[in-house]
Amino acid sequence: MILDEPGTFLQRTPPAWLGTGLRAGGAWLGAAGVPLPVPNPERAMLLYVRRTEGE
Questions:
Q1: What confidence tens digit (pLDDT) does each residue in 1-55 have?
Q2: 16 by DSSP, 3-state: which?
Q3: Are the CB atoms for 28 and 5 separated by under 8 Å?
Q4: Which of 4, 30, 33, 43 has the most CB atoms at less than 10 Å from its CB?
Q5: Would 41 be classed as within a structural domain?
Q6: Going by C-beta distance under 8 Å and a sequence separation of 6 or more, which residues neighbour residue 31?
Q7: How many other C-beta atoms are found inside a 10 Å radius of the C-beta of residue 7?
């Protein structure tokens, strides 16, 4: 997804983490969750999530 392409999102500004990435623990993610952007209906988004040991 091209983040700065006009018409990518229905919202004015996507979540800040989308441009920089996000690092969080499982307990925090389970309690708080992650705000997802709201793309236009013709757009798709694929998130890559991985577990890191010792974090």
A1: 455 566 666 777 778 887 888 888 888 888 988 888 887 777 777 888 888 776 5
A2: coil
A3: no
A4: 43
A5: yes
A6: none
A7: 9
Q: Which pTM does this prediction carry? A: 0.51
The pLDDT of residue 19 is 80
Beta bridge partners of 39: 9
The residue assigned the tokens 């040991």 is: 53
**The pLDDT value given to residue 4:** 55
Domain membership flag for residue 33: yes
Cβ contact 13:19 at 8 Å: no
Backbone dihedral region of 7: left (phi > 0), alpha (psi from -120 to 50 degrees) or beta?
A: left
Cα–Cα nearest to 38, from 15, 20, 16, 17: 15
